[in-house]
Amino acid sequence: MKPCRLAQRLGLSVLLVATIVVSSRGQSHFPLPPEAADKQNTIGDSKPAPHTPRVDAAQLQREARELLELAQTIPVDVQHVNQGLLPKDTVQKLKRIERLSKHLRGELTP
Hints:
Low-confidence stretches: none
Shape: rod-shaped
Helix content: 55-70%
Number of helices: 3
Strand content: under 5%
Order of helices and strands: HHH
Distance between the termini: 86 Å
Radius of gyration: 39 Å
Number of strands: 0
């Protein structure tokens, strides 16, 4: 092989290696994370939660009183059940007690 062709091939090889090295420096081998789908709720834009509506204390007091009154009638109804009699409104009372207690718990739980 002629020295001129050898020098050309060596030069092209050096140029090829240099191009690969330079191009690989500008690129990261790690993928970029995806953009946030909701740009308003990103970590840096944390806003305080909107103020929850104020609880109506008088309404809660009425519901608590009704719950107490209903609950106090249940032992008498259970005694009637033990005697073989089922008062017709016992099931409705228990359902109302359940609804009132769930509503009160929901209002008082943050």
